[in-house]
UniProtKB/TrEMBL annotation:
<protein>
    <submittedName>
        <fullName>Unannotated protein</fullName>
    </submittedName>
</protein>
<feature type="compositionally biased region" description="Basic and acidic residues">
    <location>
        <begin position="29"/>
        <end position="39"/>
    </location>
</feature>
<dbReference type="Pfam" id="PF13519">
    <property type="entry name" value="VWA_2"/>
</dbReference>
<feature type="region of interest" description="Disordered">
    <location>
        <begin position="1"/>
        <end position="71"/>
    </location>
</feature>
<dbReference type="InterPro" id="IPR002035">
    <property type="entry name" value="VWF_A"/>
</dbReference>
<feature type="domain" description="VWFA">
    <location>
        <begin position="182"/>
        <end position="279"/>
    </location>
</feature>
<feature type="compositionally biased region" description="Basic and acidic residues">
    <location>
        <begin position="47"/>
        <end position="62"/>
    </location>
</feature>
<dbReference type="InterPro" id="IPR036465">
    <property type="entry name" value="vWFA_dom_sf"/>
</dbReference>
Amino acid sequence: MGAPLWPTGNRTGCYAEKSLTPPPGGGRQETEDIKEGEQARSAVAEAGRRTTSRRELSRHPQFDNISPEVGQLDPGAFSELLDHDPDEALALLADMNGATDERLRKLSQQLAGRVVVDLAKQGAAPTRGVGRLQVAPASQESGDIDLDASLGPIMLSRATNTAVRAEDLAVQTWKRSDTALCLLVDRSGSMFGERLAAAAVAAAAVVYRCGADCSVIAFAEDAIVIKAQQEQRSPEQVVSDLLRLRGFGVTNLALAMRAASQQLARSTAARQITLALSDCRATTGGDAVGDASALSELVILAPAEDTEDARALADHLGIRCAPLAGPSTVAEALATVLR
């Protein structure tokens, strides 16, 4: 493990054995490597070409029970494992989504779409669209006249031959959504098994919670926008793309923060949250502190077994950081940090 990047302690404390010196790889590149739209789809397709053999999958203790033969997936055995050890079941399911065994891969992808989204819905209150209609006084908001709500003042003005006051008329106007989210998923290095499954559950939960007004970005050396802010994509579609990615490359945390800022700039929500699912151990791209500080609100969910750098960054910025024990705890962790 490389030297931690972030100073420990609070903003005014002494930062022993830590440094804000940019990591290897230099500072900001002249052209940001942020892939969106067709570029992002191509990057996901390319990542999906890397597959996992049955021999590698057999490192999971229950793999032979879940898939006793090539091309087979026993849903009953998987359901039992999910009840007994949900984190192991989800980790295995995430890895089987990249199986070299094509039939097993397709069966796993179909199963993941249901299981991951169902788990993500726990404790998440969904919203739909980018806002909702509300009725407000015409003196305070602009919009179309709400005839039902304004009928009384209109009839009175005609009867008395007087002008209708703006404060007596009601208009229909769109109320912007309360909260916008950008989920940053660290796909560098050890992005497989439980970490991959946790990322998929988090992405599904974010999309289910916020509807269109959210974005999901997977980052390593580059940043791949799996779902853009205000883009209409279902939780199942986002999960499918995310599970095609595998741990790969170095970690450009500063680039991820800038990508989040770009996405959230498209939202009109009053509260804009960047949620980073990462150990925050940057290995290229320069110092991320400045870009992280520029975000309206940043929250970190770090793997429970690897929180040192994430907590150090959170302490320096004065933000929240919570440990994530496994994919089955994602919904609860999100509900806690997003209060």
